[in-house]
Amino acid sequence: MKTTKKQKTLRTIVGILVAILLFFSSGLRLPFLDATADAYFREAITKSGLAYATCRIINASVSIVKDSSLQLEPAGVGISLAVGQALDPIDDMTERLSDVLVTAITSLGVQKLAYEISVSLAPPIVSIFLFVLSILSWFENDRLKSLQKTIMRFALLIIIARFCLPISSVANESIDKNFFNQQISDTSKELAVGFAEFDKLRDFSIPEIDGILGTINNSASFLKQKTIEFNNALVLTVSNMGEIVENLLKLTFLYVGIFLIQVIILPLLSFFFLLKIINTLFGI
User: Fold this and answer.
1) What are phi and psi of 67, to 5 degrees?
2) What's the rounded Cα separation, in Å, for the pair 99 and 256?
3) Neighbours of 182 (CB within 10 A)
4) Could you tell me which of 262, 91, 87, 93 has the C-alpha nearest to residue 187?
5) Which of 78, 4, 39 lies closest to 173, judged by CA?
6) Fewest C-beta atoms under 10 Å: which of 46, 70, 74, 215?
7) Burial status of residue 275 (CB atoms within 10 A of its CB: 0-12, 13-18, 19 or more)
8) Is residue 204 classed as helix, strand or coil in its secondary structure?
9) What letter does residue 210 receive in the DSSP assignment?
10) Which carries the bigger pLDDT value, residue 273 or residue 215?
């Protein structure tokens, strides 16, 4: 009996001391896990933001060319060449990629916020639960024992929530380095090459001709020359359109994969993996 009381006293003292330490450890970061999580969220949000900015620039450029027309009117008589609907597939794909990127950035931001909240609030909340458990351990009432188990479950769930995102970020970083980063980089480079001729089309302009008489005399050859130049620029752009759309589609698939694997699947797997370990160790 005396031994039991000594054990309870020692357990209570240790529990209260640990609870006090945890209560004043709000924001405490673990050297490897938290550093990896911080780096992962920072890099993932930055890269997604840059990809979104690039996507919007492409979309804006396509819209300018698509909605514009080329006026060839020397001496007030000429033709109007509209780019028309040739660039619709690119416009549609950039819009879809933008939506995917916005979803991914928002989800990463929510995860980062949840992670920072867990870092700040998990230690003091667990300390309160631990303090209550240390006091309740002196009582033999069945209802209080049930309450102890319930409090312990909540405390362990908070501990799991604290560690599941840092653990999943370690896996995410490995997946990024070995799969997503290289493919996204290669696809972005191919996309930039495909848009080289598009930039020429966007910047296409017609020089002014001095003198009305000279313009009238050369109107036929002028219109022919400018029409050929415009047609060549448009043909080169349209010939690259299949590759451009393919690369935009590939980027969309890659970022959908990032969203599904890194934002949803891995955090859930980490949570259930930790939950399984806790259940095995404590049997609750």
Assistant:
1) -90, 0
2) 10
3) 11
4) 93
5) 39
6) 46
7) middle
8) coil
9) S
10) 273
Q: What is the pLDDT of residue 184?
A: 84
For residue 258, give both structure tokens. Answer: 């990032």
Model pTM score = 0.70
Q: Which residues on adjacent β-strands are paired with residue 81?
A: 70
Can you tell me whether residue 137 is helix, strand or coil? coil
> Please, are residues 165 and 37 in contact by the beta-carbon 8 Å criterion?
yes
Structure tokens at 184: 């996204």
- Cα 256 to Cα 262: distance, rounded to the nearest angstrom: 10
The separation between CA 134 and the C-alpha centre of its own chain, rounded to angstroms, equals: 43
Please report how many Cα atoms fall inside a 13 Å half-sphere around the Cα of residue 250, on the Cβ side: 17
Per-residue burial over 100-113, b if 16 or more Cβ lie within 10 Å, else e, is bbeebbebbeebbe
Cα 108 to Cα 53: distance, rounded to the nearest angstrom: 17
Tokens of 270: 């980490």
Q: What is the rounded CA–CA span in Å between residue 223 and residue 240?
A: 26
Mean pLDDT within 88-100: 81
Amino acid at site 264: I
